[in-house]
């Protein structure tokens, strides 16, 4: 009877280890996907930074800017 209990205990331990390994692999894949998403979002944010900065500076209400008095300004 004790042999059967030990065998079942070892089998359960094996299943637990297998499940732990599967969850670790899934976590690694999700982490890689999140890294790719963060890189993509960061690239878009960096590319939109310069136009946003220029737009905020020139979009303010200044009275003494040469561009305001041009024909196309």
Structure description:
The protein is rod-shaped. The protein contains 1 helix and no strands. The model has no long low-confidence stretch (mean pLDDT 88). It has one domain (2-69). 78% of the residues lie in helices and 0% in strands. By secondary structure, it is mostly helical.
List the keywords.
73 residues; mainly alpha; 1 helix
In short:
The protein is mainly alpha-helical and 73 residues long. The protein is built from one helix and no strands. One of its GO terms (molecular function) is cobalt ion binding.
Topology:
Layout: H1 2-58
Judged by helices, strands and strand pairing, the structural class is mainly alpha
Count all strands and give the number.
0
Overall pLDDT confidence: 88
Number of domains: 1
Distance between the termini: 93 Å
Radius of gyration: 30 Å
Overall shape: it is rod-shaped
- Sketch the major β-sheet: none
Number of H- or I-type helical stretches? 1
Determine the strand fraction and express it as a percent band: under 5%
Subcellular location: Cell membrane
Membrane topology: Multi-pass membrane protein
GO molecular function, one term: magnesium ion transmembrane transporter activity
Keywords: Membrane, Transmembrane, Transmembrane helix
